[in-house]
Design brief:
The chain has about 325 residues and is of the alpha/beta class. The chain folds into two domains: about 25-145 and about 265-290, Response regulator (Rossmann fold), CATH 3.40.50; about 150-265 and about 305-325, Rossmann fold (3-Layer(aba) Sandwich), CATH 3.40.50. It has helices spanning about 1-30, 45-55, 75-85, 95-110, 150-160, 175-195, 205-215, 225-230, 235-245, 250-255, 265-280, 305-310, 315-320; strands at about 30-35, 65-70, 90-95, 115-120, 140-145, 165-170, 195-200, 220-225, 245-250, 260-265, 300, 325. Strands 7-6-8-9-10-11-12 form a seven-stranded mixed sheet, sandwiched between helices. Strand 3 (about 90-95), helix 4 and strand 4 form a beta-alpha-beta unit. It is globular, with a radius of gyration of 24 Å. InterPro entries: ABC_transpt-TYRBP-like (IPR007487), Peripla_BP_I (IPR028082).
Length: about 325
């Protein structure tokens, strides 16, 4: 009898241990988050995403981030998408418009169902990423950074802030649909504001040389959304300083690296905001039922040190609503 009792108790104890071990193992298995980026220039979005998840109460060891980077080369993006999908992520976060558009093509073609959060993309409905902002449908949702929609407002701020501007050089990317749409809206605004503008396609091989040959006193540079333009920040800062030409960027890091001003939502803020979507998907929500959000923050930033270097007068009334940004040590202003 004692032997039977001993065997029964032992069996129960072993069963409890096995069940507890199984439960702990499943609990410790990290959630696989795929991250797709066109290049290094957008890594601040990943930093913002990780910070946002931490603020929401998640621990670092709860996630495994599978990052695929095309290194600023669109021809490599397809391979990165294939590798990412074959790594079987539970959720994918795209760090921009081109990543989202190309990923959606692959997923639609192959009937792949993985929830996707775009951590900031311009005009997602117009670009075919979603059906509607209130009810996206399908597998995609995220942040509309409004960088196409505010193109006209950015031009207005530039010419109002610097009354001496006589001509604006608009930098766009003819190989980016988002950039071309932004150009269209900027040209419409220029016509309404009676501003003289000259568009430049950064995809042209001779673009930098031709641009520099055309720069004159009282000109300004105006940047539109494009991963190519994002990767040219240091080069454009040098042009700004060499020719004393003010530059209107979009992102906070551009001002920190030497641009005179920017108006838009930062990479880090876009990633931080996207963390809420990731959390909602983890809890079982459907991406198609999560409305696309506007950016939490659109910031007007001015680099005071760059103003001093360029020696230009700024509209003091408009300057009252601007934030002054610190400058990175590696920048030319510090």
């Amino acid at each position: 009898m004692k032997a039977k009792w001993f065997l029964m108790v032992s069996f129960i104890l072993i069963t409890v241990v096995i069940l507890n071990y199984s439960f702990d193992t499943s609990k410790e298995t990290p959630i696989r988050i795929g991250v797709l980026t066109i290049g290094d220039s957008r890594y601040e979005k990943l930093v913002g995403l990780q910070n946002g998840l931490k603020e929401l109460g998640y621990q670092q060891n709860e996630f495994q981030f599978i990052v695929k980077n095309a290194k600023e080369n669109p021809s490599k993006l397809q391979k990165q998408i294939d590798e990412l999908i074959h790594s079987h992520p539970e959720i994918i976060v795209t760090l921009g418009g081109i990543e989202t558009i190309e990923l959606k093509k692959v997923m639609d073609k192959n009937h792949i169902n993985i929830p996707v959060v775009f951590a900031g993309a311009a005009s997602p409905k117009e670009m075919g990423m979603i059906k509607d902002e209130k009810a996206p449908g399908g597998q995609f949702t995220g942040i509309n950074n409004y960088h196409t929609s505010i193109s006209g407002k950015r031009l207005e701020i530039l010419v109002d802030l610097i009354p001496s501007i006589q001509r604006v050089h608009i930098l766009y990317d003819n190989e980016s649909e988002i950039s071309k749409l932004s150009l269209q809206k900027t040209l419409e605004a220029a016509n309404e504001l009676s501003v003289s503008v000259k568009p430049w396609n950064v995809s042209d091989a001779d673009f930098p040389k031709n641009l520099e040959n055309n720069l004159k006193k009282n000109d300004a540079l105006f940047l539109l959304p494009s991963f190519r333009i994002e990767s040219m920040t240091d080069q454009l800062v040098n042009i700004e300083n060499n020719y004393r030409i003010p530059t209107m960027g979009i992102y906070e890091h551009e001002v920190k690296n030497g641009f005179l001003l920017s108006y838009g939502t930062s990479f880090k803020d876009q990633g931080y905001q996207a963390a809420r979507y990731v959390s909602l998907l983890i809890k079982g929500n459907s991406p198609g039922e999560l409305p696309v959000e506007m950016p939490d923050n659109i910031r007007f930033l001015v680099n005071k040190q760059e103003q001093d270097l360029l020696g230009i007068h700024l509209n003091q009334d408009l300057l009252k609503i601007a934030e002054f940004s610190d400058v990175n040590k590696k920048g030319s202003n510090k």
